[in-house]
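Give me structure tokens for this 112-residue protein.
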Amino acid sequence: MNMLSRTEEMLLLAVCRLQTEAFGINIRKEVEALTGKRYSVGGIYVPLDRLVKKGFLSTKTGRATENRLGRPKRLFTISSVGLAALREARSLYEAMWASLPEPVVKQLTFSG
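Here you go.
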């Protein structure tokens, strides 16, 4: 089983959500919008690079642009290994939530 940290899971899900727009700054904005938490550049790029090294993500270099001072963007794409890790994480969470005792479930139930 490939255990993901919560940050890794959020980043993989953000890449899935953004698809062809999964560039570093867009991923950072997506995670910040969903969590309401600010992330440093390193707080996003370090785990993204780790996910690439693990084979969960792949990257492709885009064109250099003037507004990026000639630096190219890196597009992140989830791999089949990354998708399998997300499936495993979801399956684990669903199994853990499903096996909670009823009194605990009642305490965790949201009322709106």
